[in-house]
Amino acid sequence: MIEHRIATILRSSQPEETLVVHGWVRTKRELKGFTFLEINDGSCLANLQIVINQDLPHYQTIIKQINTGASVEVGGVLVASQGKGQRIELKAEAVQVYGDADPETYPLQKKRHSFEFLRSIAHLRSRTNSFGAVFRVRNACATAIHQFFQQRGFMWVHTPILTASDCEGAGELFSVTSLNLQDIPRKENQEVDYSQDFFGKPTYLTVSGQLEAEIMAMAFTNVYTFGPTFRAENSHTSRHLAEFWMVEPEMAFCDLEGDMNLAEEFLKHIFRYVMENCEQDMEFFNQRIDNTVLETAENIVNNQFERLSYTDAIQILEKAEVKFDYPVEWGLDLQSEHERYLAEQLFKKPVIVTDYPAQIKAFYMKLNNDEKTVRAMDILAPKIGEIIGGSQREERLDILERRVLAQGMKPEDLWWYLDLRRYGTVPHAGFGLGFERLVQFMTGMGNIRDVIPFPRTPQSAEF
Question: What class is the 2-99 domain?
Fold first, then answer.
């Protein structure tokens, strides 16, 4: 017998085919000498119905072993289904139970469970419809990201997870050390003696691979990173994680206009790919999670993004007939409520805001001629606010050195980064996308902890 995944069987298999399936039992019911199982192997949202006749050898012994959560192998013949809701079902000729599940203690019974409860059993929650759909969409998003860049000749580069630099300058870093925390070596002035640490200097988990991506772009022109990043931000909101994945393309010989164009094409490509390859899952989210999911996706794919400067955005927000919780003033960063007003209520589509005040942006962003603003851009999306942040990078050595000093950083700590401006500097640009925020936006899930298999948050590092 040939083994098949359930998604393939439901999509294209025909009655009278003989095959083998593996999966986990979702439901079991016994009726008039037959046992009906619904099994799922994670390949799709739908289950495959298994029909077991009591004439099967060792029928009673096998059926007693099978409960919700049990893992099984079933061989048999496909037949046209007599019931509603499925085209075909599998008439079992051989059943093997790999692992049973005690119905008294198995926590996933056939009822609605809260997402908060499911977070406490993250080792099992992927077997539910909601999380099966989330992680299939997450996989499709990752596939689409690689496809987008590879088709355009970008090189995927692996940037370090351990680093001595703080790319964002925010200071929200996880320290990494091999020192004995019960007996920390100290200098005469009582400062920690990092010369005795593994790397000989303070070292952290990375907050971004951007600076290293710039290095690679100076040799390979177009590159992208896709890997884990970390923020030691003591936040308990539905939008923050301590460990998350970032996508960061970097393009040499590129300005802010090219950066914005690529970012817009990028988002549209991902949404289009997911809509084509996860249709059933997206319908599920639209019905069960957020009834605007499909509408939002269509909005992304079919609209040209609005573009305006930060200064224009501030003027619009100041005149808005809406009472905001946070102040609107030139020089202050836009808050989520401001971003969502622009994208949801005013333009009703994604918005790209450019040329932010230099004082609220990172040191590496290119200074405009007014010396007050930088060539930065954020893409604001309906329902979530900022989803992409990027900029043209400062390629002029003298201005970059001035910006580093202005933000209280030491040029000697970034000697290699400054060297890129000494030897063959070029205009270049890039952007960053928080992968989990993208998946949350796409699926309509209310909490970002529910779009990553094992969320890392303050006071929580289970699984």
Answer: mainly beta
